[in-house]
Amino acid sequence: MNPNYIYTITLYNCIKAKDNAEKKDIWRKTVLHNCFYKAKEDIVQNGTILSKACTYTVRIPANNAYRRYPEYCRDPEGHFTASNGDIVVLGECADEIGADMPAVNLLREYKPEAFMISTVSDNTGYFAGKHYRLGG
After folding, report:
1. Is the pTM of this model over 0.85?
2. Whole-angstrom Cα distance, residue 16 to residue 73?
3. I want to staple 132 with a disulfide (CB 3.0 to 4.6 A). Which of 42, 60, 95, 110 is the partner?
4. Which element (helix H / strand E) includes 28?
5. Cα 52 vs. chain centroid, distance in angstroms?
């Protein structure tokens, strides 16, 4: 095991309305241990305006519970996936995304230790260091 894989994350997967019988977005969460997590804060200049920008990298070791999104939609119980628009929170998060806690509120509440996934790479085809890489 890579000694940098020391973090616990909560991964919120969204099954889109078009992909389920309820015809509404359904959020499911999975707590994953022994992951890599890195958040890098930069100061970005746009003309005369300075602002903070965070970039995130998460690596999840290869896991038999992982499913590609179409497979996950058919059988999410006991599985997880990773797709653009899903959410990662550093640590074990008790909150559920739903009517009482919309996704945008969860992101606001846990920033800067939460992000929306914008890139996913399945790096499990390599000889060593097999993992799923999430960026945001």
Report:
1. yes
2. 9
3. 60
4. strand 26-46
5. 21
- Pairing between β-strand 26-46 and β-strand 49-61 as defined by DSSP bridges: antiparallel
- Residues 103-123 have pLDDT tens digits of 999 999 999 999 999 999 999
Distance separating alpha carbons of residues 127 and 129, to the nearest angstrom: 7
Residues 6+ apart with CB under 8 A from 101: 95
Q: How many residues does the chain have?
A: 136
Q: How far is CA 66 from CA 13, 76, 102, 108, in A?
A: 12, 10, 25, 27
Does the N-terminal peptide bond of residue 76 adopt cis geometry, omega within 30 degrees of 0? no
> Using alpha carbons only, what angle is made at residue 106 by residues 105 and 110, rounded to the nearest 5 degrees?
115
Q: What is the distance of C-alpha 105 from the center of its chain?
A: 16
DSSP assignment of 42-69 equals EEEEETTEEEEEEEEEEEEE--TTB--H
Tell me the torsion sign for CA atoms 135, 60, 67, 28. negative
